[in-house]
Amino acid sequence: MLDLTIQKLKSKPSMIKKIIPLLLLFVITSCVKDVDFEQAEDLSISPIVESSLIFFNFPASEFSEPTGTAIVTVSDDLELDVFNEEFIRDNLIRAEFFFEVTNSIDRNFRADVILYDENNQVVHTFNIDTTPNGNTEVVTTHTEVFEDASLEQLKNTVRLELILNMFPSPTGIPLNQNSQGIIKMRSKATLFFQIDS
After folding, report:
1. Tally of structural domains, the chain
2. What is the pLDDT of residue 169?
3. What's the CATH number where 87 sits?
4. pTM value?
5. Are strands 109-116 and 48-59 parallel, antiparallel or unpaired?
6. Is residue 32 pLDDT above 60, yes or no?
7. Is residue 175 within 8 Å of 64, Cβ to Cβ?
8. What DSSP assignment string belongs to 39-65?
9. Helix-then-strand count for the chain, H and E
10. Domain annotation covers residue 56
């Protein structure tokens, strides 16, 4: 049967010559689509960038104090000159600072976060309070969102200061080198961009 079909096709070579060009023309024209090159002018992308921000890990012995009735303060600074970049100032539409604080020291803590401009003026502040549960770990999270006016404040920031305050013991028992527990913080910044061509 197959031999007969091949013979019939061989006997009609002019018909094959007519069909092949028609098939090729159909395949070529069916794959063509008009391309609007002006669409590239309307390109818009929205990348999201995450970066570590600030972290610490202090054992209870770091806060040793003689009476148990004092407020103990630890502070640190972080330069944030990234917001001086023209690209970031022009395309940043939102930012989020996420903080996670884990406390297993039997004391109340407050972390004050202060943002300063180039003239050393405070442009934005917020705080994170953690409460103890004996020496059991207590996890506190906080997300500070920067949009609209607060985003403009962030764009003017050149320095971040973190002040960690440990409040007095309710029992008056001081911490010493043998005290148990830790307080640790980890944080990240998430930056949302809108880039239009």
Report:
1. 2
2. 85
3. 2.60.120
4. 0.76
5. unpaired
6. no
7. yes
8. GGGG-EE--EEEEEEEEEEEEGGGG--
9. 4, 10
10. yes
